[in-house]
Specification:
Elements lengths: L3 E4 L11 H15 L4 E3 L6 E5 L3 H11 L9 E2 L15 H10 L4 E6 L14 E5 L4 H10 L3 E2 L14 H8 L5 E4 L12 E5 L4 E5 L5 H8 L3 E2 L29 E6 L2 H14 L4 E5 L12 E3 L6 H17 L4 E5 L7 H12 L3 E3 L1
Parallel strand pairs: 1-8, 2-8, 4-6, 5-9, 10-11, 12-15, 12-16, 13-14, 13-15
Antiparallel strand pairs: 2-3, 3-7, 4-7, 5-6, 9-10
Helix pairs in contact: 1-4
Length: about 350
């Protein structure tokens, strides 16, 4: 089937009174109520939305994305009152984070109610929930009169999409509709922070734009899953978070992360001319490009600006494939704060292929 492109301008995304906004919300919600899939924008990345309570609709997500069925899906809501249909209880510390960060790029994992189909929760007894901050996203949820299961709108394992054009690269013809927004890219650029909370423990399972420091400022010290920085490690809870059990975000090009400073990175890349028989490229920072003359390179932002790195990392990973090289060498980001989210995506994209120089 052809994917229906629901056109809207950037100016109308948060303008609830515009005809374009109303029209997109009406058509998208109708498709969702019919059990179809619609790729919708959020502040993090584009999500592939279906009725979270409709098992057959959620099954279509797994088929369209070629996604493993034991990988749980984040459920998106528009109002906090909707949580009572999803979560058995809301621990006090979860409530504090909700009051501080919702709507926004924070996913909280709760013990689920019986309303959640097994396929939505990956056959687990938990459910991952968040409330997106983009007005259009929440209006589509409200108009659908249901919660939306919405993982990233890409083929499973590929870099997540931050524009409608990137959605169509992967899913054109596989889904019923996509919100098409010329010139729009998701403002944050990486998926939400994920935290598991019960009455007796709090564990960060996936880093994102909301940092460990920000969370601990609200609820005190939290545990950090070893899976965040080591693809081969897992604790008892990591399986309950989307994006932690399989290789993710990967371009077709092989990636190697170089753990070193700028000087050593530049020297390594330049020496490849003598020693490397494969076609190679540099996935670097803005500050590196002037030193890499006549070497194929793509920047994913300034070394000093991790928020910019978040916005650009997935597009950079997609653009590496356009260079038609065998291997790309990535300069490692600063792993503090937001930088941890960028590092986490890179280690999954590379299959934890890190060389310390």
């Amino acid at each position: 089937m052809d994917t229906l492109k629901l056109e809207i301008s950037c100016a109308d995304l948060n303008n609830r009174e515009s005809e374009a906004h109303k029209n997109v919300v009406r058509i998208a919600s109708r498709l969702i109520n019919q059990g179809e899939l619609v790729a919708i924008p959020t502040e993090t990345v584009f999500g592939l939305a279906a009725d979270a309570f409709n098992s057959k609709a959620v099954q279509k997500i797994f088929v369209a994305k070629s996604r493993p069925t034991d990988n749980p899906i984040i459920v998106h809501i528009a109002e906090i009152t909707e949580l009572k249909y999803l979560a058995q209880e809301i621990p006090y510390k979860a409530e504090k984070l909700i009051n501080k960060f919702w709507p926004g790029p924070l996913t909280i994992i709760f013990k689920k109610t019986k309303n959640i189909p097994e396929i939505t929760s990956g056959n687990l007894d938990t459910v991952a929930v968040r409330m997106p901050s983009l007005e259009l996203s929440r209006d589509i949820i409200r108009a659908s009169k249901t919660a939306l299961a919405a993982p990233s709108a890409n083929i499973s394992g590929h870099p997540s999409p931050v524009s409608s054009a990137q959605v169509l690269q992967d899913l054109d013809g596989r889904i019923a509709g996509v919100i098409n927004i010329p010139g729009f890219t998701s403002g944050i650029g990486v998926e939400s922070t994920v935290i598991y909370i019960t009455s007796h423990e709090e564990i960060l399972l996936r880093p994102g734009f909301i940092t460990i420091k920000q969370i601990e400022a609200e609820i005190g010290d939290i545990k950090i899953s070893p899976k965040i920085t080591n693809i081969n490690n897992c604790d008892d809870h990591c399986e309950s978070s989307p994006g932690t059990r399989y290789r993710h975000y990967a371009p077709k090009t092989s990636l190697v992360i170089l753990d070193c400073n700028q000087q050593k990175y530049i020297e390594f890349i330049k020496n490849l001319r003598k020693n490397c028989e494969k076609k190679y490229a540099a996935l670097c920072f803005d500050e590196d490009k002037s030193e890499l003359v006549n070497i194929p390179c793509i920047s994913y932002g300034s070394y000093k600006d991790p928020a910019e790195q978040c916005r650009r990392i997935f597009s950079a990973l997609r653009n590496i494939d356009k260079l038609h090289v065998d291997i790309a060498y990535v300069r490692i980001p600063n792993k503090e704060g937001i930088g941890l989210a960028v590092f986490n995506r890179l280690i999954y994209a590379s299959g934890f292929n890190i060389n310390k120089i």
